[in-house]
Amino acid sequence: MTEASVLFLRACLVVLAMPIYLLSFLGIWEPFCKKIFFPFFLDKVSIVHQRKSKKQKQELFRNLPDFTSPSGELRLLEIGTGCGTNFQFYPPGCKLTCTDINPNFQQSLLKNMSKNQHIHYEQFLVASGEDLHQVPSGSVDAVICTLVLCSVHDVNGTLKEVLRVLRPGGAFYFLEHVAANHSSWTYFWQQVCYPTWKLVFAGCCVTRETWKNLEQAKFSELKLQHISVALPCTPIKPHIIGYAVK
């Protein structure tokens, strides 16, 4: 009965989103989403998410200075920088390399850079999480990734790249929305929303159990916590937060 309900409600969502499915079929939606819709959407939703998760982020990034290299520099790499909503949490004087597969966030990114001049911005790279070949191996002290592993094509491949670019003893910081408990109503609605949500929101998957990928990756230490971020009327309340040490 549950599976039939999921399929029925999925079909209802497809009908409601039929214009987007049609634009996708014609090859119009993806470039429009990448250049206009998703940057606009992410800018707006980031404000809400930031308000709901600010305390958790402050606590998460509190020990970033502990991973300063022996040279006295703290080199950070952020995967999926987007609008730059994490900049306010980074320590003064740190050196930051920003990466994103989508280069169309300039307006919001520049706004957040101007607000956070305590950071030394080294470079912006157009790159996917699975392919950071422009970043030398063992060259950064910490990698940050928030609300990104839901939409990369290969979570394990991204984590391998994270381990490659981190120096020994460096840390990977994450905050990601994940699949809910399988017996919960939230998970039911995640299954219902999955295909249409992924199409509309640039490949975002709401049913990933990303904590399993982190547990299986070759980190020497993993500090991971399941939390709920109050995002009303969405299927992305369940999150994981923490950091892992190479």
Quick overview:
The chain has 246 residues and is α/β, with parallel strands linked by helices. It is built from 7 helices and 7 strands, in the order αααββαββαβααββ. Helix content is 40%, strand content 22%.
Mind explaining what this structure looks like?
- The protein has 246 residues and is of the alpha/beta class.
- The protein has one domain (3-64, 74-83, 92-245): Vaccinia Virus protein VP39 (Rossmann fold).
- 40% of the residues lie in helices and 22% in strands.
- The protein contains 7 helices and 7 strands.
- Strands 3-2-1-4-5-7-6 form a 7-stranded mixed β-sheet, sandwiched between helices.
- The longest helix is centred in the first third of the chain and has 32 residues, at 29-60.
- The mean pLDDT is 94.
- InterPro entries: Methyltransf_11, SAM-dependent_MTases_sf, Thiol_S-MT.
- Residues 77-174 form the Methyltransferase type domain.
- Keywords: Membrane, Transmembrane, Transmembrane helix.
- GO terms for molecular function: S-adenosylmethionine-dependent methyltransferase activity.
Topology, element by element:
Blueprint: H1 2-16, H2 18-25, H3 29-60, E1 75-79, E2 95-100, H4 106-115, E3 120-126, E4 140-146, H5 155-165, E5 166-177, H6 185-200, H7 210-216, E6 221-228, E7 238-245
Parallel strand pairs: 1-2, 1-4, 2-3, 4-5
Antiparallel strand pairs: 5-7, 6-7
Helix pairs in contact: 1-6
